[in-house]
Structure formats: structure tokens, C-alpha cells
Design goal:
The strands form four sheets. Strands 1-3-5-6-10-11-12-13 form an eight-stranded parallel beta barrel, surrounded by five helices. It has a single domain, classed as TIM Barrel. It contains twelve helices and 14 strands. The longest helix has 17 residues.
Length: 352
């Protein structure tokens, strides 16, 4: 296989349109198998409890259930979330679900984790959005040792457990990558456009970092410099951190930039909301001719990204062949780029 396909994952098209039926369910399973057969490294799933109309025009399937189905029709691809909204779940139940998926998939799980942004999702579950950061940190306090096979006692502000041990236990706990950082400043964005210290601290205690899809390359580069400095300040090697970027892409096989963008906006609006407008979409996502998209991805590689997870705007796996031939074959990673499979052996946190 030409190019660096082992550095690319694909989002399962887990969005659902009104009226979707059994054919769509079967198509999602077939899509998962096609991703593996084509040689991609991973399948990722996004997480939204309810339709997030500010960004999307569709609803999404529950991510861990969708990944369990994908695990059953694949044998090699890694299975990830980007990002799972941590505070909407209980840490013990989530640890159990992840341990089960890790066991059944034979150690293929990546937990891409974050705090979320949609007020309506928090309201639906009776969780205060203002507590999301503290809840996430406390969840990691409980979940990391549980997934490492330890017995946990914890009494915190939000959660309390005594002498808790969960099974199944796998030889390797799921990798955990933390989403967050800067984003393009926009009055419609739900969060601050900066890389806050609490997110850096979460990345430091886990295995990787997922810059926001809405973070332009120059800001990814700035954030990565800040994060490397943060690692060194805490006597850690930044090379231990996977830098994995999520974005959205629809390939149109043309050298005409205007034609490419017209068709791309049509495809995007089947999944994305029109609220932010075409200019914003083109600024943060992957638009244009194949050569323009290669250049956009290359800018992100040059900024420090070593792994990509890309959303498709169509459930047709034929789009993926164009990704391989026109895009992935032409994106160049430096020879110093780190391995894409860091791994975390169970019990490692106790030995550290």
C-alpha cells in the first residue's frame, strides 16, 4: 500500500437520517469491513446524545454500542471514540463498558475523551455543565486504575467507591487520548478559543492529544509547542504523546476549485448544520481539489500531527478509495514521527 495509510483512521458513518432503516444498519457494518479491508488503521465514532443542531443536521448512534458491532465484523482495525463526552457517564459503568469492549475486541480500543459542549445534553441528564471539567478529572482518577486492573477506593466531590475491582481485565488497557485545545475564534463557538491548563494536565496523565477539528494548523503548532513545554516542565518526554487530529473530508475528483467546493458543500450539508456558514466550514475543515486537501493535511503534519481520523460525508465506502489514491498516498510524514501504537500495559500506572 502506498502512502502512510497506517496513520489514518476513518469515522464510522454513525449519523442517521430520519427514515433510515435496516439497509442503513447493514451498510454501517459493511462500511466497517471495507475500512479494514482497505488497510486503514482504525474506526472512530463520534458522540452526541441528542442532535447537536449547532454543528450537525443529523443524530448519531450511541458510540460504544456502535463500536461493539464494528468489533464483531472486523479483526484488526483499532476502535476509537472522538470524543466521548465523559461527564455524561458514570465512571464505573464506563470503565466496565470499556473493559468489556477491550476484551471482546482483543485489545483494540482507544478512548478519545473530552468534556463536551452542548448545554442540552447536560440538561437532559441532569448534570451541571459548569462541573464538566472537575467531573472528567475525577472520572480519570477512578477509571485509569480500574482499567489497569487495580482495586480502587475513591471518595471525591462527585463519585465514591470502596474496594472496587472490575473485570474482564486485559493485558493492555485502552489507550486514552484527550480532546481539546485552541480553536478558530468565532462568536458562535461554545468554548473559549485557547488551550487551557486543565486540558494539558489531562493529556499529561494519559496517552495522547486530539486537537480540535476547528483548530487551524498554525494554532495546532502553537498548542503543540505549549504542550511539549508542559511535558518537559513535568519531567516527561513529549514523544510519549500521540498527536491525533480529527477532521471532515469529502473528495471530489476535479482540478476545478469552484466545482470541488460546490459539491463538497452539498455533501457537508447532508451531515453538518448550515448555521456557521460556508466560509467558516472552509476555514477549519478540508475543502478544495485533491491537491488543496493534501496541502491542508500536510500543514497539519508540519504542525505536529502524526495521526488522522477523518469523517466521511457519505456512507458509501467507494469514497474511501479516492482518499487512499488521491490523498493518503501524497501526505508525507517526517521520518522522526512517533509510532502510532503507543499502548498502555495494564498495571503500568501502579508501577510508575
Amino acid at each position: 500500500m502506498t502512502g502512510e495509510i497506517g496513520r489514518f483512521g476513518v469515522f464510522l458513518p454513525s449519523y442517521v437520517w430520519q427514515g433510515d432503516g435496516p439497509e442503513r444498519a447493514r451498510g454501517i457494518k459493511e462500511f466497517a469491513g471495507a475500512v479494514e479491508d482497505m488497510g486503514f488503521d482504525s474506526l472512530f465514532v463520534t458522540d452526541h446524545l441528542i442532535a447537536a443542531k449547532r454543528f450537525y443536521s443529523v443524530s448519531f448512534l450511541e458510540p460504544l454500542t456502535a463500536l461493539a458491532v464494528a468489533a464483531g465484523v472486523t479483526s484488526r482495525v483499532r476502535l476509537g471514540t472522538s470524543i466521548l463526552i465523559m461527564p455524561l457517564r458514570h465512571p464505573v459503568m464506563l470503565a466496565k463498558e470499556l473493559a468489556t469492549l477491550q476484551f471482546l475486541s482483543e485489545n483494540r480500543v482507544i478512548l478519545g475523551a473530552g468534556v463536551g459542549w452542548n448545554d442540552l445534553e447536560y440538561a437532559a441528564l441532569g448534570v451541571k455543565k459548569s462541573e464538566r471539567g472537575k467531573r472528567t478529572d475525577e472520572m480519570l482518577d477512578i477509571m485509569i486504575p480500574l482499567l489497569d486492573g487495580e482495586t480502587v477506593t475513591h471518595h471525591g466531590e462527585f463519585y465514591s467507591v470502596d474496594d472496587l475491582y472490575i473485570e474482564p481485565r486485559s493485558a493492555q488497557r485502552p489507550e486514552i487520548w484527550i480532546g481539546g485545545g485552541s480553536q478558530l475564534a468565532d462568536p458562535k463557538s461554545p468554548d473559549l478559543p485557547k488551550f487551557v491548563e486543565s486540558v494539558k494536565a489531562r493529556v499529561l496523565r494519559t496517552d495522547g492529544w486530539i486537537p480540535r477539528p476547528t483548530c487551524p494548523p498554525e494554532e495546532i503548532a502553537r498548542d503543540w509547542r505549549e504542550l511539549q513545554d508542559y511535558y518537559r516542565e513535568h519531567d516527561r518526554d513529549p514523544r510519549e504523546c500521540v498527536v491525533a487530529h480529527e477532521n471532515f473530508m469529502h473528495i471530489v475528483l476535479t482540478n476545478d476549485p469552484d466545482k470541488a467546493r460546490r459539491e463538497q458543500h452539498e455533501a457537508f450539508l447532508r451531515v453538518m448544520s448550515s448555521e456557521r456558514g460556508p466560509k467558516y466550514l472552509e476555514t477549519v475543515y478540508l475543502f478544495g481539489t485533491p491537491d488543496e486537501i493534501v496541502a491542508s493535511l500536510q500543514q497539519r503534519v508540519d504542525a505536529g500531527v502524526e495521526y488522522f481520523m477523518l469523517h466521511t460525508m457519505t456512507p458509501d465506502p467507494a469514497q474511501l478509495r479516492s482518499w487512499i489514491d488521491e490523498i493518503i498516498a501524497n501526505v508525507k510524514f517526517p521520518p522522526t514521527a512517533g509510532p502510532v501504537r503507543r499502548g498502555a500495559t495494564a498495571g503500568a500506572s501502579a508501577a510508575a
